[in-house]
């Protein structure tokens, strides 16, 4: 036997975050940025949750693979995640798709994004790799998942949500035996298999995987030679391991981080305008389902230096106020009424304006007498004086993107087009 290393498993692991996706269901919100770079929760971006989970779990080696419109994501990582020190064996590397392997080759799939960077992962000298999607909102201790993986002697351990069987049709679903070994992997099945002993629930893949690096490295090289493969974890590698190796399911509830205020494990895919709006507005509830005030498991991010939020004017119909809302630094609420809304950094709301169930991304400006209800405002939009949104669905849909759920997305391009048409 070789020398024993007295180190935590997370010290022998790295996190590989797949952050290349556009997130096209977020429509114009991802015209200029990848989905992981979309803002969330007043100060953070979506990718901060996966990176913070890794950091808080004790993982100090990370890589972020980017592809689609990556600039704002790369800039955010450089500004907000630049505290790693190589002399302490800490790294956060950004891995844009580049002509490293083949002059014509972008990342062909999620597995190919790891394969093209095998040499970089090798240089980290790690035993385990945690493959993460960069586009979900949740708090999770990956160390517990790695421990289960090692204890079970698994080839892959798959993070799984416990969902009602009726909802599982939208996911990749695990069929498991009593030992939680995955016996079948079904992509969006019409009749999802139930968890043993729990007929009403199924196990759905979170897109989180733990591998022994030596095992995955070999598998990636073999997959690269397979012309029939789409080089994707969910479509190709995981089904292959389920069939030919040992795949274990890990329940999210076993490693979900809860502060005591949360009543149930919290995981959200904010991949649609409706889901994005709902998850942000939920944070303004009296007791939100996600506790972002938990200092034991902080969500790290790039934090700008801003003055405190400011509320001015105190007349009967011109009072700067915010009720059941979250207001970030640098905001000025000048004689405006804010209700059940979330204002990101530097939003200015002018006199006699009303914002109700509005998610306003950074540096928006809401003109006098504007009335906005159930809206998402893209970064930096200038809402013209007197604009009313949320009262007339047909009028809203004429100029802006109105979802089936009645949420209106407003971007500056839409406002400019409207202004040009109206003269």
TrEMBL record:
Keyword GTP-binding recorded: no
Domain Glucose-1-phosphate adenylyltransferase/Bifunctional protein GlmU-like C-terminal hexapeptide, chain residue ranges per copy: 307-410
The UniProt record lists the keyword Nucleotidyltransferase: yes
Pfam families (alphabetical): Hexapep_GlmU, NTP_transferase
GO molecular function terms listed in the Swiss-Prot or TrEMBL record: ATP binding; glucose-1-phosphate adenylyltransferase activity
Annotated catalysed reactions: alpha-D-glucose 1-phosphate + ATP + H(+) = ADP-alpha-D-glucose + diphosphate
Residues annotated for alpha-D-glucose 1-phosphate binding in this entry: 107, 172, 187-188, 205
Keyword terms of this UniProt record: ATP-binding, Carbohydrate metabolism, Glycogen biosynthesis, Glycogen metabolism, Nucleotide-binding, Nucleotidyltransferase, Transferase
Site (Could play a key role in the communication between the regulatory and the substrate sites): 67, 106
InterPro entries (alphabetical): ADP-Glc_PPase, ADP_Glu_pyroP_CS, GlgC_bac, GlmU/GlgC-like_hexapep, NTP_transferase_dom, Nucleotide-diphossugar_trans, Trimer_LpxA-like_sf
EC number: 2.7.7.27
Coiled coil (UniProt feature): none
Highest taxon, organism lineage: Bacteria
Gene3D superfamilies: Hexapeptide repeat proteins (2.160.10.10), Spore Coat Polysaccharide Biosynthesis Protein SpsA, Chain A (3.90.550.10)
UniProt domain Nucleotidyl transferase: residue ranges: 15-284
Pathway assigned in UniProt: Glycan biosynthesis; glycogen biosynthesis
GO biological process, one term: glycogen biosynthetic process
Subunit structure as annotated in this protein's UniProt entry: Homotetramer.
Reported function: Involved in the biosynthesis of ADP-glucose, a building block required for the elongation reactions to produce glycogen. Catalyzes the reaction between ATP and alpha-D-glucose 1-phosphate (G1P) to produce pyrophosphate and ADP-Glc.
Protein family per UniProt: Belongs to the bacterial/plant glucose-1-phosphate adenylyltransferase family.
Protein name from the UniProt record: Glucose-1-phosphate adenylyltransferase
Organism: Psychromarinibacter sediminicola
């Amino acid at each position: 036997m070789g020398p024993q290393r007295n180190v935590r498993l997370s010290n022998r692991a790295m996190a590989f975050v797949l952050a290349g996706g556009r997130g096209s269901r977020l429509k114009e919100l991802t015209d200029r940025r990848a989905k992981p770079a979309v803002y969330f929760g007043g100060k953070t971006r979506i990718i901060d949750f996966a990176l913070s989970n890794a950091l808080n779990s004790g993982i100090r080696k990370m890589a972020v693979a980017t592809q689609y419109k990556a600039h704002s994501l790369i800039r955010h990582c450089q500004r907000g995640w630049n505290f790693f020190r190589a002399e302490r064996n800490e790294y956060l590397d950004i891995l844009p798709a580049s002509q490293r392997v083949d002059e014509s080759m972008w990342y062909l799939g999620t597995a190919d994004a790891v394969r093209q960077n095998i040499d970089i992962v090798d240089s980290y000298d790690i035993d385990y790799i945690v493959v993460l999607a960069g586009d979900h909102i949740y708090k999770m201790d990956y160390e517990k998942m790695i421990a289960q993986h090692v204890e079970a002697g698994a080839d892959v351990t798959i993070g799984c949500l416990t969902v009602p069987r009726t909802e599982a049709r939208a996911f990749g679903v695990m069929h498991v035996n009593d030992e939680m070994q995955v016996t079948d992997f079904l992509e969006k099945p019409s009749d999802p298999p139930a968890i043993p002993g729990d007929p009403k629930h199924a196990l759905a893949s979170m897109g989180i995987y733990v591998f022994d690096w030596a095992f995955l490295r070999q598998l990636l090289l073999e997959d690269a030679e397979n012309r029939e493969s789409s080089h994707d974890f969910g479509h190709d590698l995981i089904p292959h391991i389920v069939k030919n190796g040992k795949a274990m399911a890990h329940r999210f509830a076993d490693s979900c981080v809860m502060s005591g205020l949360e009543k149930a494990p919290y995981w959200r895919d904010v991949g649609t305008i409706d889901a994005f709006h709902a998850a942000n507005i939920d944070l303004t509830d009296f007791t939100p389902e996600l506790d972002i005030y938990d200092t034991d498991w902080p969500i790290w991010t790039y934090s700008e230096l801003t003055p405190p939020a400011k509320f001015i004017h105190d007349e009967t119909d011109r009072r700067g106020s915010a009720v059941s809302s979250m207001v970030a630094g640098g905001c000025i609420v000048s004689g405006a009424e804010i209700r059940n809304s979330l204002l990101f950094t530097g939003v200015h709301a002018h006199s006699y304006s009303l914002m109700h169930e509005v998610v306003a991304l950074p540096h928006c400006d809401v003109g006098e007498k504007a009335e906005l209800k159930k809206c998402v405002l893209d970064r930096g939009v200038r809402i013209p004086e007197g604009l009313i949104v949320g009262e007339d669905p047909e009028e809203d849909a004429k100029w802006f993107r109105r979802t089936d759920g009645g949420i209106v997305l407003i971007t500056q391009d839409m406002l400019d087009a409207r202004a040009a048409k109206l003269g």
